[in-house]
Amino acid sequence: MNQLFINNEFIASKSTDTMDVINPATGEKIDTITFATEDEVNDAVEKSKQAQLEWEKTPEPTRADHVKLLIPLLEQNKDTLAELYVKEQGKTLASAKGEIDKAIQFIDYMTGLSMNNKGEVLQNSRENETILLTKKPIGVTAGIVPWNAPIMVLMRKVIPAVITGCSVVIKPSEATSLITLKIAELLRASTIPAGLVQILPGTGETVGAQLAQHPDIQLISLTGSMRAGKSVYAESASTVKKVNLELGGNAPVIVTSNADLDKAVNYIVTARINNAGQVCTCPERIFVHQDIHDTFIDKLKAQMEQLTVGDPFDESTDYGAIINQQQLDSIDDKVQNAVKNGAQLITGGHKIKRSGFFYAPTILDHINLEDSAFKEEIFGPVLPIVTYSEFEHALNQANDTNAGLSSYIFSENLKEIMLATEKLKFGEVYANCEAEEVVNGFHAGWRESGLGGADGIHGLEEYYNTTVSYIRYD
Ligand code: NAD
Predict the structure, then answer these.
(1) Which of 144, 221, 275 to mutate to test the pocket of ligand 1 (most atoms within 8 A of CB)?
(2) How many Cα atoms occupy the beta-carbon half-sphere of 414 within 13 Å?
């Protein structure tokens, strides 16, 4: 497929720069995508700029009415979209459909906020003066999207931008450009005016970097790894644009001696195997109280060993494929390294022998705190465990990380839950549940996990500039 989506038209890129699209669950090539050239990026940004200037004149509730029309289009095309999504990304069909449902819920909620753009009347300090603070669309924005949740994250970039009167140039992940271009067909079928959403496949180093440096882009929002986020942050400096970063995590999980272990194991496994462990909020560092350690490990092992891994189209499959060979090798390297350094392999610890890229459900007990499988984000179905004796010490160790996205506590003791909620320095604390990320929440990371955030009323704020107007009448 050689397509760019510019001004509501699919046009062929003039580039010879292409990439094979491989189905991660079979290893077979399913298509080829072509990347946008530098001129094509400039052309798309220029068209975005023109479209935005018209669009900002439209009142916000009317903008939302156009955006809402995406809901029936997504509903009608859910099965076709989900099928292509699974072939390109490797997640289970149920998970693909679940993500589309979440995107629909997101659109519904965010469009419902369209009457909420409120300014302020500020206290005046001089006679005969009124001071108004108004919020205005920031202008042309860019959205850089990862492969692990390309539909939901695409919506997180497109919907707030269009509702607030901005336009957005999207660079999908190289690994999920097909599904993104398929959604462009729905954008084209909607009444959202041409030029407000452009979609340009390309690499981070080319199209991504060009967008980050482009003087006509006022906000760049990237969801991806810390490495990519830091590059975009640096690349954006020359034009002092606003930067919104949703980056990797390394979520701690504290399982106290007061936890309901069946509940804890169930939620930890559910959260860890979501998308084969390739989710930024997945549990990644498990701190288990020494008194319940052995029972916890027995229950966790039993549940991990019951999982069905394989064909993402099979309804009985618990999780599907890892996105590509490189990610699969990276998971295995971290696991083998941890074992070499003394971690006890309770189960798994290997690639699954079949076509495509699959990793076995893995538990690493007594892992060294300095191991990469513990210290860095591990994007796979791997649970690294350590024991603790003092609750406060566990909280301190949980906070001792450069990541700050999500965290978990399992306990039936209210005092422990409240202390954890208060002391864990993360954007999200999940107490006795799996990661939820509600559409009316605010998904934001501390430390190197991000800048700003997404979702809900706070997410919309990222897309506004403010003007303070001083009106004298003496
Ligand atoms: P990635 O960083 O490799 O790529 C993400 C996007 O950034 C891609 O579109 C890529 O092409 C682009 N990119 C890469 N380098 C760039 C550069 N120098 N300049 C501009 N763009 C660049 O990440 P990935 O492998 O696609 O996704 C997995 C990562 O994303 C994980 O770390 C995960 O935790 C994170 N993630 C975070 C959230 C969140 O909400 N915090 C959500 C989903 C994924």
Answers:
(1) 144
(2) 0
Using one digit for the tens of pLDDT, what is the confidence trace for 61-80?
Answer: 999 999 999 999 999 999 99
The catalytically annotated residue of 235, 246, 284, 416 is 246
pLDDT value at residue 251: 98
Q: Closest Cα to residue 303, out of 345, 340, 350, 262?
A: 262
Going by pLDDT thresholds of 50, 70 and 90, the confidence category of residue 120 is very high
Is-catalytic flag, 282?
no
Reported as type and span, the H/E element at residue 336 is: helix 325-340
Distance between Cα 222 and ligand 1 center (Å)? 7
129-137 and 464-472: which strand pairing? antiparallel
- Tokens 């804890």 map to which residue? 264
What secondary structure does DSSP assign to 345-389, as a single string?
Answer: EEE--SB-SSSS--B--EEEES--TTSHHHHS---SSEEEEEEES
Strands (E), 114-232: 120-122, 129-137, 140-144, 167-171, 197-199, 219-223
Dist CA 57 CA 27 (whole Å): 48
pTM: 0.98
Mean pLDDT of the chain: 98
Ligand 1 atom closest to residue 232's alpha carbon, by position in its atom list: 19
Q: Above pLDDT 70, what percent of the chain?
A: 100
Residue 311 DSSP code: -
Residues with a CB atom less than 6 Å from ligand 1: 144-149, 153, 171, 173-174, 203-205, 208-209, 212, 222-225, 228, 231-232, 246-249, 280, 377, 405, 443, 445, 450
| Contact by Cβ (8 Å): 12, 2 | yes
Q: What's the pLDDT tens digit per position in 306-356?
A: 999 999 999 999 999 999 999 999 999 999 999 999 999 999 999 999 999
- Please name the residue that has the structure tokens 């350590």: 386
Q: What is the pLDDT of residues 210-225, one digit of tens each?
A: 999 999 999 999 999 9
- Return the number of other C-beta atoms located less than 10 Å from residue 103's C-beta: 25
**Could you write out the three-class secondary structure of 231-259?**
HHHHHHHHHCCEEEEECCCCEEEEECCCC
